[in-house]
Every structure is written in structure tokens, then in C-alpha cells.
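Final report, closing paragraph on structural work. Over the funding period we assembled a curated collection of sequence-structure pairs, and we close with a single example.
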Amino acid sequence: MDSNSNRIINPDPSLYNEDLAPVPKEKRNWGWGSYSMLWMGMIHNIVSYELAGSLIAMGMSTWQALAAVILSNVALIVAIWFNSAAGTKYGLPFPVLIRASFGYKGAHLPVMIRAFVAIFWFSVQAYIGSKAVGAVISVVYPGWVSIGEYTFWGMGLNDWIAFGTFWLLHAWVISHGMERVRRFELWAGPLVIVLALGLVYWALKVAHGFGPIFSVQSKFSGGDFWKSFFLAVTGMIGAFATLILNIPDLTRFSKSQKDQIIGQAVGLPIMMTFFGLMSIIITVGTTIAFGKPITDPVALLLQFKSQPIVVLLGAFALLIATLSVNVVANVVSPAYDLMNLMPSKLNFVKAGIISIVIGVFFAPWLWFTNANSIFTLAGAVGGTLGPVAGIMIVDYFWVRKCQYDLNSFFVKEGQYTYRNGWNPRAYVAMALGVVVALIGLVVPSLQSLYTYNWFLGIAVGGLSYYFLMRSYQIQSVPTLVEEEVSFK
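Its predicted structure, as stored:
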């Protein structure tokens, strides 16, 4: 490899195609504003709303719920910043970068685990978003509910029409590639903010000001509170665990490290805390207005049936917001992951369509109940993927000292060959991290550990990898000449 360029010399066709190759400097045109809007689109969605709102339904006070939102976002942005650096520097996606720590063959397993987790979340978001589609149709077609009498595979005909419509919208966005995704995010995020602000105004009017909203008393005390608090924090982190890993898929298009750092800081912790606060205020308002917390925003909108325009515009905003997060968080990532398996046969569009087809078979309508159950599920996801994030971060910053051999990512006889393409040390570290993170689910006496599953997973996975790799001889690599600001 020429150390002054991103040119790959004699790449192996089984490891390389144009979508997996380094993004050329001239095509890295995402500024900090792009990342701010990108995150606004990803976090302003129904699942994020339900996760924040359900903290009130669990019994937390407004202040406790807000604290959980803030802590989860601080942890998220730190992990995301660290794992964004290599993607920005080398212009490479997650399934390529992970070859450095797991080997070019060994990378397939964590990549596919992460891919199927993303597809799983796609199915959940698609199902939830289809409810917004149904709400829109119900306003313009009074007989919408009646056609639900015809059922198939657990859903009525009306729900299948709504789900199919929403699925086709995903296919349309994906078919236009990554640049269409970026442009779509520029207006999808702000749209739902308008809806949320309208609902906040309604909640404050119902509650007669901020005083009653922030006077909600907690149902927890002592150890019970801290257990619920950290379970909620890890659950909210788990909901974005896939993005911690595949964030290089997005930051590989960044103009500089500075752009992705500033843009993500504005878009994630600041805007997510603001959105979380709005969700909490609205949920408290529903408790005052209806005598019980309503954490589902579509169900809340349907309380305003006497004002069809409110339901119509609100459901449309939720539909667009959910579509935006689903494409970026749960389709872009598995698309790159599937391309990594068959780079000579798949491109971004083909792999993205395959991902959303697979997503249908998760059939969330058969088991999805409410946001409270998502905390345990999201926590398990975070506990599984946390160790992989820890390994990637430690490999880049402390094992490789921020220097990768670019050409070795695309050849079978390079630095990332290890033992016939597998790095056993990475697998041992991953196994240790997953066991420690999830053991509380199966061993009652260690149940308290599960409360901190993501934190334990990323720490144990990363530290184990560091100590296991100390005996491994890392070859020196040429320094990649960059025009952008250093992350360090």
C-alpha cells in the first residue's frame, strides 16, 4: 500500500468490493451538521420515546427518569466517539475494521451477530412504525378497523397493509443509496421535534405548568431504586448497542475527526436528553389527563380522534421519524455486514433489501407487548455486543496505537491473518465479556450483575483483550498521512 494514499494493492475479491473499500477523500463530505441531523433522525423515534416515557410508568420521579436518560447518553457518546475514530481516519466500515482484532475470517461471527441484532430491531421498529401508518389511514378511511377482521399469521388485514406500506417505504429509501439516506435525515429529525413540542405544550397545559410535572414522587427507595435505575440505563444503552459497533459505517464519510466529534455531541447527548425530557413531560401529562401513563405515542395521538388533523400530522411525523432511524440504525449496518460475507455478489442496495426481507420473519407482532419488556431485551443485546465494542476500541487505541495497515484488511496474507484468519484471543475476550455481562440472567445469586451488563461487558471484553494481546507481536505499519484533525 502507498502510505500517502488509500489505494489498495491486489485486494482479494472475497474481502473487497467498492462499497467496502476506503471512501476517497473527495467523497468524504459529511460535515458536523450532517451528523447532528443524522442523530436527530435516529433518536427521535417511537422506541426512544417509549423507553424514556416508560421510566415514569416504572415508578420513577421526573428527576430520576431524567438522570437515567442523561447517564445513558454520556456513556453512549463516549463509546461512540472512541469507535468512530478509525472509521473517520481510514474511511472503512465496521465489518472491515473488525478484521484487525478478530481476523479476516474470525470477524464473520461478531459481524453476523450484530447484523441479526440490527435486523431484529428493524422488525420491531417497522412494526411499531406501521401503527403510525394505520393511524394515518384510519383518519381518511373510516372502515379501516373493520377490515382487520380478516387475519393472517397473527395480524389483521389492515395491519398487514400498514406494515407492507411501511416496508415498501424502507425499500424505496434504501434503493437510492447512502447519499439519499443522508439527505432524508436532514429533515426527518426536526419534523418529529415539532410534534413533540406540540405534545409538551398540551402536557404543560393539562398539568397547569412545570410544578406538577416535576413534583411526581418516586415509588422506589434505597436499593430497589438503584437496581431499577441502572437496569434502565443499560437498557437505553442496549437499544443503541448496534450503533456503537457500526458507527464507522457512518463516520467513514466524515470530512474530519472534528466534524464527527462535534456533530455527534450535538446530535446525541444534547438532543437525546432534550427529547427524553419531552417524552417524560408528555408521559406525566398523560397520567394527569387520563389517570394512567400512556407511553405509546400512537396510542396517545388516537386520544385526539375528535381532532383528525392532529392525529394525521402527528402520525405522519412519527412515521417519518421511525423510518429514518430504522434505515440508518438497522438497515445500513446489516447491509454492510452481509456485503462483508459476499463482497463479489452484493452491493449496498441488494444487501439492504435482503436485510429487510429477513426482518419480516422476526414477526414482532406475535410477541411485542410494551416498552417495559424492552428494557430487559435491550439490556441483553447490550451485554452481548458490549464486549465486541470494548475489543475494537482497545485494539485501535492501545494495541495498535491508532495505526492500522490498510492493505492488510483486504488480503489473506497480512497483519490480520493470525491463525488462518482467526484470532483466538479476541474470541476468548468476547466470551469472558458476554459471560460476565449475562450470567445474572441464569444464575439467581448473581442477578445483581445483570443490572450493569453493558458496563461489565465492554470493560471485561476490552481489558481481557488487552492483556491477552500483550504477548502478540504487532508489526509496525507506515503512518497514514491525513489532512484531518487527529482524534488523540
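The first helix runs from residue 32 to 43. The first strand starts at residue 151 and ends at 152. We thank the funder for supporting this effort.
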